[in-house]
Design brief:
heterodimer, A: about 700 residues, mainly beta, Porin, GMP Synthetase, Chain A, domain 3, 3 domains, 13-stranded antiparallel β-sheet, 10 helices, about 10% helix, about 45% strand, globular, B: about 220 residues, alpha+beta, 12-stranded antiparallel β-sheet, 4 helices, 13 strands, about 50% strand
């Protein structure tokens, strides 16, 4: 009969079609790190949420590009390039200059049976834009494996056999004045000057191998401040290899006599490798019998509560959660807990609710769950026990429960019984660190990597000391870049390369931090000590954030002094003190877009504002872009004029499926300049508080029952 | 390997990357299951339960064996909780499966869990020898949201077969349930013995978790 089963299995197929269909195949990515042939862009668009990192090399030009498909139509890219540039007179070559830039591409028409995909784009669109180009490009697929691309380019893409601008009255393209501020929108240049044609073909031989041929309109002319790259011959050919859907490798013969290689690595924020996660099953719900529910409420003695609390604490520990305190009051149980395990607080609450059904007396009808972090309670989530019993494993359970759940501020400390008397605790760990400081002055940057020894000592539930000692593995020369293009501003960041460059261990931070709840919807932080690598002093912060509001308002006031470059205890070397701080507004738009505006005084005493806009996926992937503008004149600010940066956060459980709050994070900025520099203090309130509030809980509420 | 490759290469490609500390995996299930089942909590790490044939045969109703066909894994489950008509069974590998009269209504710990289902019409159709049903299935998607499918199903008897159990043939009626929705099609098979208990079945969980073969002893 075994055979009978197997034969019936063979006809079974579980298939998903329609809206949940598999992701489309990725387009090929060029050496410039965006969808393209070899150096020419194509109009092809990856699925929304595609994040790519490309490393490419051809002689004289090494690029690292991060590209993100923000919406179905819009993609943005950030580039660090090490490029050989002709100097200001085009007589000599400056080798390995660091250039940063941004690209933007917008799809105009999606491909149909008849129409090609059509897009326009801006490459390296800020001044000075050594690769600056604009283009309009069309790509058409023929059958399963052949695509043809034709485009019209301006700027760097309009240099080979250029002709008069067909669209714009702007027949000449202004040359960037090297004395003008960098980092501005180069609107004077966009779509100005000669235009030229480019194009190419791509043939996919099989799933893994493809070949490319392109006619390039990039000619890399021998001009001042232009890339010193050989582009005389317009024809280039390449081979692509995709061992799997996450990797593309390319080898190419460029412009007749140059060899190039690139690797692109992909993930899609909507395609989680760990699917719904591999955490073990939760404890099931225990349902009270009819008799239990009908019985009159029994008094719970202190001894009984202690026994219940002890059993609960053990069950919480089994889920790597912490039972901080418990109150049993009539028909309500109030539970304060810590969650150091699950990325989703909703998931932690779901597990706690089920444990409570197992251990609490039947007269308890209401569960109030209060997440605690840094010793302060962050919110109160009120659940009905009968809902937990009725909705377990039911279709629509998550949505129904969310509608019936109240999200309010945490209750008072009074009435709670602590699980254990507080005892001071000590923790420590080692971690690697990497730091890249791109300096104001063109072409220099500082890279540092090493090991940190981190330790923390908790004096009271709300007060702790943390310290970090670092040992660089890359720096011991004491002569790192030391340039200052902003002589009128205190070197609050440009001397970063001088800090801790002696090759001996340094004190990265040593600070005492206290958190508190001064009132309803209010949270506070005070930090004292060596707050960051370059500054020490006092940092205070107050945050107003109602649990059910998408808006938060914060105020931070710091008084700090600049540390000595040996990164130990002294402040005498600079004798620089400053009062710095910001008013901040945080807003969750609710569709995956979050914004933060900070207005205030920066470390160099300059006044200004920072805007950050983030695209956050409910699974924890976050991509943010920020820009700072201060009163410092472009001349004083030096190159860069605005501080711009992007940051990427990838949750570890996205890849592993194991419960974890760990993340992989990277922050990339265009400049580290003295204007618009903020104190880099750890443990800011908003990031601690938000995960326990309604908006963030709703983002992952689907995990409540997981 | 896919996720490992993605992780390794993406992280290598990002300049200035900083990895936060990795949390340690601990043996949650055995402790949690121990709490509920009042069993020994000192058992080692998550591992499939292996129960000898004699033990299975000697204790009817105590064990369910699942075969997660897509990942070639098996586990033996014991009942951990009852909620109305539904019983949740948990195995040593951290997987739980919840049944309503032999029909799967939820799973936990599989690659794509069935978070909850309304399958009561299927249960009734099987009990009454066939018919049609509407099922509602909730899945947890890659954005931690619930995706719901409503399936229209036909249940019919496709014959009588012998189910081999420890070398003995047990006569059983074979039911086939074919379900279809906008985005999902599946076929479940149930073998029901003379006492109207489903002793074996092949049931779909989700596109990523595939089918489970379930043997109820």
């Amino acid at each position: 009969m075994r055979f009978a089963i197997l034969s019936s299995v063979s006809v079974l197929a579980l298939s998903v079609t329609g809206q949940a269909a598999a992701q489309d195949a990725l387009p090929t990515y060029s050496l410039y790190g965006t969808p393209g042939l070899l150096e020419m862009p194509t109009a092809q668009t990856p699925d929304e949420g595609t994040l790519s990192a490309t490393l490419s090399y051809r002689e004289g030009l090494f690029q690292t590009v991060l590209s993100f498909q923000l919406t179905d139509r819009i993609s943005g890219s950030f580039r660090y390039a090490l490029v050989d540039l002709y100097d200001g007179t085009a007589t000599d070559i400056d080798e390995r200059e660091l250039e940063r830039g941004f690209d933007l591409q917008i799809r105009l028409i999606e491909e149909t049976d008849v129409l090609p995909e059509l897009a326009f784009g801006l490459r390296d669109f800020l001044t000075p834009g050594r690769f600056q180009a604009e283009y309009l490009v069309a790509t058409k697929t023929f059958g399963d494996s052949l695509t043809a691309t034709a485009g019209l380019g301006w700027g760097a893409l309009g240099q080979r056999d250029g002709f008069d601008n067909p669209f714009s009255g702007r027949s000449t393209r202004p040359v960037f004045d090297e004395s003008d501020p960098e980092g501005q929108l180069a609107t004077d240049q966009w779509f100005a000057g000669d235009a030229a044609f480019f194009g190419g073909l791509e043939y996919q031989i099989n799933e893994k191998w493809g070949v490319l041929a392109e006619y390039s309109s990039l000619s890399y002319p021998e001009a001042p401040n232009s890339p010193a790259v050989d582009g005389e011959n317009p024809y280039s050919f390449g081979v692509t290899y995709r061992p799997n859907e996450a990797i593309q490798l390319t080898a190419a013969a460029l412009n007749g006599n140059n060899f190039a290689i690139s690797g692109s690595f992909f993930l899609n924020a909507n395609d989680r490798p760990s699917m719904s996660g591999s955490e073990p099953a939760p404890v099931p719900v225990r349902v009270r019998s009819r008799a239990e529910r009908a019985a009159p409420a029994a008094d719970i003695s202190a001894t009984q509560q202690a026994a219940i609390q002890s059993a609960l604490a053990q069950a919480f520990r089994a889920e790597d959660l912490g039972l901080v305190a418990l109150e049993l009051d009539g028909s309500t149980a109030r539970v304060r807990f810590t969650n150091g395990e699950f990325r989703s607080n909703a998931q932690a609450m779901g597990r706690i609710a089920r444990i409570l059904t197992q251990a609490l007396p039947p007269q308890i009808d209401t569960f109030v769950l209060e997440p605690v972090s840094r010793g302060i309670a962050l919110s109160a989530i009120r659940l009905q026990r009968s809902d937990i019993e009725a909705l377990e494993n039911r279709a629509g359970a998550a949505e129904t429960l969310f509608d019936r759940t109240a999200f309010v501020d945490a209750g008072p400390d009074a009435g709670l019984t602590d699980t254990n008397a507080f005892t001071p605790s000590f923790n420590w760990n080692f971690s690697p660190y990497f730091r890249l400081d791109p300096f104001v002055t063109t072409g220099t940057f500082s890279f540092d990597a090493g090991v940190s020894l981190n330790a923390s000592y908790r004096l009271t539930p709300r007060t702790g000391i943390s310290a970090s000692i670092g040992q660089s593995l890359t720096r011991n020369d004491g002569s790192d870049p030391d340039s200052d293009s902003t002589p009128d501003l205190q070197n609050v960041r440009t001397d970063s390369g001088d800090y801790g460059d002696d090759g001996i261990p340094v004190l990265q931070s040593l600070a005492l931090t206290h958190y508190d709840r001064p009132g309803t919807d209010l949270y506070s932080r005070v930090s004292v000590g060596y707050l960051e690598r370059m500054f020490g002093g006092v940092s205070t912060e107050l945050l107003w954030k109602p649990v059910d509001s998408p808006l938060g308002l914060g105020a931070e006031l710091n008084y700090v002094a600049q540390r000595d470059t040996d990164m130990w205890f002294g402040f005498g070397e600079y004798d620089y003190q400053v009062a710095t701080g910001h008013l901040s507004a945080y807003y969750d738009f609710g569709n995956g877009y979050h914004t933060q505006v900070d207005v205030g005084r920066y470390l160099a005493g300059d006044w200004g504002a920072t805007l950050e806009v983030a695209r956050e996926y409910d699974n924890g992937i976050r991509i943010a872009a920020s820009v700072s503008q201060t009163e410092v004149s472009y001349e004083d600010f030096g190159n860069g004029s605005y501080n711009k940066g992007i940051s990427i956060t990838l949750p570890q459980d996205f890849f592993t499926g194991r419960a974890s709050q760990g993340t992989y994070a990277a922050r990339l900025s265009t400049r580290s300049s003295d204007g618009g520099a903020r104190l880099s203090v750890g443990g800011r309130l908003y990031d601690i508080v938000r995960g326990a509030h309604q908006a963030d809980l709703s983002d992952t509420w689907g995990r409540f029952w997981r | 390997m896919k996720s490992v490759w993605k992780k390794v290469f993406l992280t290598a490609a990002i300049v200035g990357l900083a990895a936060c500390e990795e949390q340690q995996e601990t043996d949650l299930l055995n402790q949690a299951a121990g709490l509920v089942l009042r069993t020994d909590t000192s058992a080692p790490t998550r591992r499939q339960n292996v129960v000898p044939q004699e033990e299975l045969a000697a204790n009817p109703g105590k064990y369910i064996r699942i075969n997660i066909r897509d990942i070639s894994a098996t586990d033996t489950l014991v009942a951990a909780g009852t909620n109305g008509e539904r019983t949740t069974w948990i195995g040593g590998s951290g997987t739980s499966v919840t049944f309503e009269n032999g029909v799967i209504v939820a799973t936990r710990g599989l690659p794509r869990d069935l978070m909850g289902a309304d399958a009561s019409q299927t249960v009734r159709a099987i009990q009454s020898g066939g018919g049609t049903s509407v099922r509602v299935h909730d899945f947890l998607d890659d954005q931690d949201q619930i995706t719901q499918f409503t399936l229209e199903c036909t249940i019919e008897v496709t014959g009588a077969e012998m189910v081999n159990r420890f070398g003995t043939g047990i006569p059983a009626a074979r039911f086939e349930e074919t379900c279809r929705s906008d985005g999902l099609t599946l076929t479940n098979v149930y073998w029901m013995d003379a006492s109207r208990a489903i002793i074996r079945s092949l049931q779909a969980v989700s596109p990523d978790a595939g089918y489970l073969q379930i043997d109820a002893f």
